[in-house]
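Justification of computing resources. Each target in the renewal requires a structure prediction run like the one illustrated here; the chain below, 267 residues long, is used simply to show the kind of job we budget for.
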Amino acid sequence: MRRILVLVKQVPTTESVRLNEETGTMIRTGTDVAMNPLDLQAVEAAVRMAASLDPAITVTALSMGPPQAASALREALAMGCDEGVLLSDRAFAGADTWATATTLVGAIRTLGDIDLILCGERATDGETGQVGPMVAAMLEWPVLTYASRLEVCGNELRVGRAIEGGLEQVACPLPAVVCALRDLNDPRLPTLSGKIRAHEASIRVLSAADIAVDVAHLGLAGSPTRVVSVTYPSFRRKAELIDAMHVGIDASVRTMQRFLGMEKEST
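Resulting structure tokens:
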């Protein structure tokens, strides 16, 4: 094995999610952000695997997003990844899962020499779980989803998949894509030396011109799905004060039944 690639994504914190109502796309700048929580398990698995198999294996973290997404890559570097690569270009903006996977595959082919790709099972800002399997399909690689156990034996990948009612044991040859669940491992906390190394590291930035993908297939223009409208739920409350001391228990019960639509018709 020569290189393990980890797909990481910077996502808004739950309280900071905002949508552009005109384009239907998520606003990713000027908000509180963090690495997608499920990607932490993927990073941890990649770093552990490289250390146990061969220290010469390179672990590369790859992300797509605005320049501020470099902070997610630095977090991955602080955890033990060897290098970070950021796909950042206005041409990538507004991409749906299909266009995102297309862009990532273009970068993966540009990087080359990749034997295993790890990613989180889903991202908290979209909850689709589509990008990992799409990347595998476009590369024509096997994909193993819902991974809660992971082991490499020679050129074979063995995964325990969490399914309803138990654990399914599956295996496939490398190269492959694995989508990790939260219970795959307990991600480490970055050390001080790791944070210093991450801070000093250079992040490689790839633009649309650096990957062999037709720009018509990138970003919002290359996305076959659209958010056509954005609406927000309205909160309506109806309250009625019932004073049981003045109207009596029976009257209070009848008032409550009427309020809840439970009052029976008189016969």
